[in-house]
Automatic annotation (TrEMBL):
Superkingdom to which the source organism belongs: Eukaryota
Pfam families: DPBB_1, Expansin_C
Name under which the protein is recorded: Expansin
First-listed, main subcellular location of the protein, grouped into a coarse class: secreted
Keywords tagged on the record: Cell wall, Cell wall biogenesis/degradation, Membrane, Secreted, Signal
One annotated GO biological process: plant-type cell wall organization
Gene3D superfamilies per UniProt: Expansin, cellulose-binding-like domain, RlpA-like domain
Reported function: Causes loosening and extension of plant cell walls by disrupting non-covalent bonding between cellulose microfibrils and matrix glucans. No enzymatic activity has been found.
Subcellular location, record wording: Secreted, Cell wall; Membrane
InterPro entries: Expan_Lol_pI (IPR007118), Expansin (IPR002963), Expansin/allergen_DPBB_dom (IPR007112), Expansin_CBD (IPR007117), Expansin_CBD_sf (IPR036749), RlpA-like_DPBB (IPR009009), RlpA-like_sf (IPR036908)
Domain Expansin-like CBD as annotated: residue spans: 125-204
Amino acid sequence: MSGGACGYNIINADEKYAAALSGALFNEGQSCGQCYKITCNSQSGSKFCRDGSTVTVVATSFFPSERALLSDSSDTKLENEHFHLSQSAWNEISLDESKVVPVLYQRVPCIKQGGVKFTINGQAFFMVVLISNVAGDGSIKSVSIKGSNTSWIVMSRNSGANWHSNACLKEQSISFSVTLTDGQNLKFEDVVPENWSFGQTYSSPNPMQFNN
């Protein structure tokens, strides 16, 4: 499940709690980074639930429902709300005999260790920034970027948690203004140094992180 439609590079312990969302929940990538507490709904009559068990997962990818696949349509109205869990997360709420179980779910704040991470990719006049390790609401509504020699520039969602700009910011320190879907905003001033390079990840200093 590493990578996925959101673009996160999730490995080791993080991958245990990764989940792909159906189109009805994925919302064309706007739900990337959101956290959900999932409970197997034993009151539905399913005999495959682990009683009283819950698991908290983070949205990292997209997984269309069988109904949507059979229809060969991108219409999210054909999608049920469902989660495709990593095996470890699945085993925490369900017995292994079943592939599908009814669940109850709710959005919960994301709890993260360390600062917000900015991974710089692209090329001279097309910068793509993956923003990850976002606490609180988890999902991002808008991003602006600023070089040490520029004013603020609004970025566009490239795909999932990737945001892009056509600005050339070579040999400039870079700042970001990030607004979450719940309205929280933080400005990460000069979080990327002027000697930055493509392919590198830069983190905001602790405790600069969104509220849970």
